[in-house]
Amino acid sequence: MDTQPKKVFGTGAISLATFLGGPLAGGFVMAKNFRLFGQPRAALNAVFLGIITTILLFLALLYLPEGIFDKIPNAIIPAIYTGVIGILADRMQGPAIRKLMEEGAVKASNWIAAGYGFIGLVIYGALIAVAIFAVPFAGYPKNMQIDENITLYYSGDVEDMQVLRVSEAIKSSRFMEGSAGADIFLKEEDDFFALTFILPDTSAISDELVVHDFTMLEKYLNYNLNPAKPLEIRFADLELTYEMDLPEIEMEDLGFYEPLGFLENHEINANQHIYYNYCLPLKDVEIIKDAVVRLKNYFPPGQPLDIIVLNNGNDYSIKFFVNGMVWNNPAVIKRIKSAVTYMQDNGINSPMKISFIDPETYREKQI
Question: Helix (H) and strand (E) counts for the chain?
Fold first, then answer.
């Protein structure tokens, strides 16, 4: 009886399948050869290697910083894995392929290899669709709900605690109150945090009232969060294909130290006030008030005094308005430090960073 000659895939066909369908297709075609060689275990290993390599490739595409892939030409990655699998195929299967050819086997059609590559491409497309569904916005794999209608997406390099503070600050500002729904995006740049809002109609940023409202939100967030890096608001189109900076507008002079207009105000008496951010516990505000009232020798009731207290998450910043002329006076510094120690001894557990603000020039100095 006449028998059909064995058909074996050459290394070129394996490379073709890999280039079209990725490591998964290349591993499958190599597995076909291994079965022809009578090596079923090696065939399973080839399929397993293709699956693992595909998973690792997708994880890299999803979670590595965008800037890394932006610098790599699109054809480089397929060329790399195609070259690697081509070399492996030649070393692991080359001698066996040549031996079969000498025994009368023929090369399988490249069209068949291309067909397997196309199947791998379809599988890749399905994986991409699943990835897009699971992580709808590239570069922002994590998310946090601000409320049932508003989602804050953030990049992997932003700490969860930082995201939580931003989320709570946005909610506290009531800026998004009544919104039918919105997606907001947070990522860390070299010198600042970028908070991006999607604008369906990007022409809205030419509206001075819109820009004014977002500028007020930016100031509110920065003064209340007191972040290590400033937080800057940006805008993007629906597809996140390009971003626009918040335009700068001329703000009228408030006539007083600007942060006071965005912080909560607790009156000690007619001349003395505590200004604090939204996340400072009220019990700590009361402890500071009680300390000022009790330490009348330090803070006479008839003497104007403003104190800013900011909860930074890990510690507090407490800032006293003190004339710059006495900033270097050891007695003044000692009195302020002892007042802060008194506050901590009476129930404030967080470490405190102490600063002076000159009420005339608004210069600031940490002591």
Answer: 9, 14
Closest CA to 217 of 191, 255, 182, 190: 182
| Residue of 185, 238, 246, 237 lying closest to 216 (CA atoms) | 246
Which residues have C-beta within 8 Å of that of residue 327, sequence separation ≥ 6? 356, 358, 365, 367
What DSSP element (H or E) covers 234? strand 231-236
Query: Predicted confidence band at 156 (pLDDT cuts at 50, 70, 90)?
Result: confident
Q: Is 245 helix (H, G, I), strand (E, B) or coil?
A: strand
How is residue 67 written in tokens? 């800037």
| Cα 197 to the center of its chain, rounded Å | 14
Largest CA distance in the chain: 116
Distance CA 332, CA 322 (A): 9
Element (H, E) at 20: helix 11-36
| Burial grade of 11 (CB within 10 A; 0-12, 13-18, 19 or more) | buried
Q: In Å, what is the CA distance from 3 to each residue of 9, 37, 98, 298?
A: 19, 18, 20, 106
| Cα–Cα distance for residue pair 224/221, rounded to 1 Å | 5
pTM assigned to the model:
0.64
* Cross-strand pairs, 354: 318
Structure tokens at 305: 């005094």
More confident residue, 289 or 70: 289
Instruction: Return d(Cα 282, Cα 298) in angstroms, integer.
Output: 23
How far CA 38 is from CA of 9, 35, 89, 153, 202, in Å, comes to 15, 5, 16, 51, 63
